Amino acid sequence: MNTLETIEIDVSVELGAAVLPIHHLLRMGRGAVIELDAFENDAMRIYANNTLIAKGEVQVDEGQLNVVVTEKVIKPA
């Protein structure tokens, strides 16, 4: 089990995504809004090393943002 404790993975949580031209991105300033392809009740996507592994939702607990796993994503064999 000690070997597993030394392995690191990159975990990321995606709220949504957007495609826009680079010149729009370069013109954005503070307070700019980027429209995402997700709605407020959509599940967030959770990735480990760029592989989708689960879906979840955001919860706030005493000012701390947390992501709660609501569904595991099973890859077909």
Describe this structure in words.
With 77 residues, this protein is mostly beta strands. It has two helices and four strands. Strand 3 and strand 4 (64-72) form a beta hairpin. The radius of gyration is 16 Å and the shape is extended. The model has no long low-confidence stretch (mean pLDDT 91). One of its GO terms (molecular function) is cytoskeletal motor activity. It comes from Pelagibacterium halotolerans (strain DSM 22347 / JCM 15775 / CGMCC 1.7692 / B2). One of its GO terms (cellular component) is bacterial-type flagellum basal body.
The strand order across the widest sheet is: 1-2-3-4
CATH-defined superfamily: SpoA-like
Biggest sheet architecture: 4 strands, antiparallel
What's the order of the H and E elements? HEHEEE
Please state the average pLDDT score.
91
CATH architecture term: Roll
Percentage of helical residues?
10-25%
Radius of gyration: 16 Å
Which structural category do the helix and sheet elements fall into?
A: mainly beta
User: What is the count of β-strands?
Assistant: 4
Q: Identify the overall geometry.
A: extended
